[in-house]
Write a structure and sequence with these properties.
Elements: H1 4-14, H2 18-32, H3 37-47, H4 50-56, E1 62-68, H5 73-83, H6 88-96, E2 100-106, H7 108-120, E3 124-127
Antiparallel strand pairs: 1-2, 1-3
Length: about 130
């Protein structure tokens, strides 16, 4: 069973957003000069070999894909328009023809922010 200090830390982490956890992990790795990716790369090398090279390269560009519009389709269309430079007709087409890519090759922060905005108005989003 986890000790009291570990349990307290887990409770703090549980309350953090994914973005806050990522920022914490980056700061932890920098401060202690370690990386969480190394054990994963070693394990993958033992399994498949070729896949380890791909695992070492961290994904830096993400696509935001709309997978559902929910009950508030008009609000989702407005949000798609605010995130892109699309006109009303084009944004409506994106929302009507699911799944649709809303943003391509954006940073993780931009992708997460877009996901939060779309989900806040009732849409469903995947980040790839």
């Amino acid at each position: 069973m986890a000790n009291t200090k570990t349990q307290e830390l887990l409770e703090v982490f549980e309350k953090m957003t994914v973005l806050e956890l990522k920022e914490f992990l980056d700061a932890f790795e920098e401060h202690f000069e370690v990386t969480a990716a190394a054990p994963m790369a070693v394990a993958m090398a033992a399994d498949g070999g070729g896949a380890a090279e791909e695992a070492v390269e961290e994904q830096t560009e993400f696509d935001v894909v709309l997978t559902g519009s929910g009950d508030k389709k008009i609000q989702v269309i407005k949000e798609v328009r605010s995130l892109t430079s699309l006109g009303l007709k084009e944004a409506k087409a994106v929302v009507d023809e699911l799944p649709s890519t809303v943003l391509e090759a954006v940073s993780q922060e931009e992708a997460n922010a877009a996901k939060e905005k779309i989900e806040a108005v009732g849409g469903s989003v995947e980040i790839k």
